[in-house]
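#lab-general

N.A. 3:47 PM
ok so I finally got the sequence cleaned up, no stray characters, all 113 residues accounted for. can someone with queue access submit it? mine expired

B.Y. 3:52 PM
send it over

N.A. 3:53 PM
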Amino acid sequence: MQINRNLALEHVDGDSRLLADLALIFVEDCSRLVDKLRHSIGEGDRIAVERIAHSLKGRLAFFGMERERELALKLEVSGRQGKFAEARRLMTELDMKIETAMPEFAALADDAG
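B.Y. 4:20 PM
back already:
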């Protein structure tokens, strides 16, 4: 399990309905963010890479996904420093970890239904 449900529930004061809604937003928004991040890396857009990775880092931290948050932080720093080869490698690793967690997010989001 990659999502720390207990920590995420703490962030919403135990409101499981709100947590489910936020998981649904993550599911709906994540592929767009990842695509934008990948495109920004390809374009060499340091500012966009840093900004998008920072946003993704916060979302991952909210759900207690510490290893993924650390990867997003490294990606953010790589973007800031213009290290795009490193950013591409980190992006591949982060994308795989997020994809692996998607069934957990989907199950959590189903609680909203």
